[in-house]
Amino acid sequence: MSNFHHPIAGHVYAVTGASSGYGFAIAQAIVAAGAVVGLIARGQENLDLALATIGSENGFIATADVSDSKQAGAALQKIHAHFGRLDGLVNNAGMARPGSIETYSDDEITSQLQLNIAAAMYCSRAAIPYLKNANNPRIVNISSASAEHHDEMQGLSLYAATKAALERLSRDTRREVQEYGIGVTILRPGAAMTEFVADWDMTKLKTAVDVWNERQGRWMDSGMEPGHVADALVYCLGVPPGVSVDLLEVRPNKLVEKFQF
After folding, report:
1. H helices of the chain, where?
2. Which residues are catalytic?
3. What is the CATH code for 12-257?
């Protein structure tokens, strides 16, 4: 049996959007490295299932809509109170909806701006006072390859814009909290197989995919799973104090034919 002791073992991390997809994979990877995790998401049932999987001795759930500042602050306070400390925050919660500038509704615009930008600010604002006294504290903001690469799927202009804004926010946050030893990382994943599209408007999705296929060709990159992103994130959490991964991009590297409607 290996005696390897992971650098984050014994630490406490909060993860938003932790009940499914990238967030749940991240929570599992954190626990596998010997740390414990506060799982934050809106759905109580899915949070209960997530906690049952990782074990109540390894996690604590805080039900909250982090696009609401009061709920975000309360969730971080509960996690800190439960564990008595907080060593890092992963701002993973996000939302994408297919559409175009011409067709987005007010609600689609507002909800994506609130969850993809404002929520990260609300959670970071709540976490920073706790992180100031932490052991090798970290904030990791989950971006998207669509913030940088123009060959990603069409019809996600607003989502891509919010992720680009999150990256700019991350760079300024890094400067603001550097004096406290808090490292800030942008983790930029490409597409992985998750249930992300489960509640998308299929008509708008078909339109977006048709345009994507027409403009970018029939091939796409694939082959990545949420666990690959989670492993990369744990690496970012575990670099030594005084060192920070500024930006890490993880993308699939298997060429496959795009899905068709």
Report:
1. 21-32, 44-54, 69-83, 106-113, 119-131, 157-177, 202-216, 226-238
2. 159
3. 3.40.50.720
